[in-house]
Amino acid sequence: MKIKEFLLNPVKFFIKGRKILTDPQYLDVQKKSHKEVLKTPSRTVIINFLLSLSKGDTSYLEIGVRNPQDNYSHIKADKKYSVDPGLEFDENPVDFKMTSDAFFLKLSENKILSKNIKFDVIFIDGLHLAPQVDRDIKNALMYIKDDGFIVLHDCNPPSEWHSRESYMYLHTPAKGYWNGTTWKAFLKWRSFPSINSCCIDTDWGVGLLSKNHRIGNPNKLTNPFFEFNLLEENRKDYLNLIDFESFKKHFQE
Ligand SMILES: C[S@@+](CC[C@H](N)C(=O)[O-])C[C@H]1O[C@@H](n2cnc3c(N)ncnc32)[C@H](O)[C@@H]1O
């Protein structure tokens, strides 16, 4: 490196760094992360509410657990099962140490649990990329009770950066926050005629799908290329966003 370059580099980095860190769009995305983090209730409260609607013994399946202390351990169900290949938490104290694809394949072959098992709630929170979430939803629909719920985390990314495909790239205004492209799979299944759905506006968007509960009408898919800017403009309608207190009114007699 030449001496002139060596002396000018820190100045170049300072000017460029300041430009990025004070950029209004960069700051806006950070504000959005902060706002989302403060929302309540958590996914755990919502899942426990859904389980409390069931009359008999309850059965719960969680796809993607990481540290059970963050959610799984706090779920109140008579029977609980967990699936995770252990990519993010070394201990990985789950029932089925495998991917969701492997789990559903073994389940269908009657090699684990029973192929006739039905769950009250299946929480899909594994690999947050649309093709995987799409498969998880398709599989989960075969093992959910008619009056049960499929729950999806991270359906309401506050910005395009939160919705990036690559989790590993952290030099974006969203920093370590990542919702992936789960929203695209949720949106796809929201347009399925026999599925009711909505998204609770908390904890990065808690998406719900149900066969029998009238929690929200199917939507016409008017964003066939899943462009983020269209989601941004039509968020409430596309996701059927609802706050938890209003959602609970569906179940009051
Ligand atoms: C966001 S964390 C789960 C958080 C947890 N459900 C909670 O509420 O706190 C995602 C987890 O999904 C797991 N995972 C990644 N790919 C997966 C796959 N194909 N099938 C199932 N789980 C997967 C990762 O190992 C990671 O532990």
Topology:
Blueprint: H1 3-21, H2 24-37, H3 43-52, E1 59-63, E2 79-83, H4 100-108, E3 119-124, H5 130-141, E4 144-152, H6 182-190, E5 196-200, E6 206-210, H7 228-239, E7 241-242, H8 244-248
Parallel strand pairs: 1-2, 1-3, 3-4, 5-7
Antiparallel strand pairs: 4-6, 5-6
Helix pairs in contact: 5-6
The chain binds S-adenosylmethionine.
The site of S-adenosylmethionine (SAM) has 21 residues, from strand 1.
Task: Write out key terms for the chains shown.
7 strands; 253 residues; binds S-adenosylmethionine; Rossmann fold; alpha/beta
Structural account:
- The structure is a single chain.
- The chain is an alpha/beta fold.
- It has a single domain (22-251), classed as 3-Layer(aba) Sandwich (Rossmann fold), CATH 3.40.50.
- Helices cover 36% and strands 15% of the residues.
- It contains eight helices and seven strands.
- It has helices at residues 3-21, 24-37, 43-52, 100-108, 130-141, 182-190, 228-239, 244-248, and strands at 59-63, 79-83, 119-124, 144-152, 196-200, 206-210, 241-242.
- It has a seven-stranded mixed beta sheet, sandwiched between helices.
- A hairpin with a 5-residue loop joins β5 (196-200) and β6.
- The termini are far apart.
- The mean pLDDT is 96.
- S-adenosylmethionine is lined by residues 43, 62-66, 70-71, 83-89, 99-100, 125-127, 132.
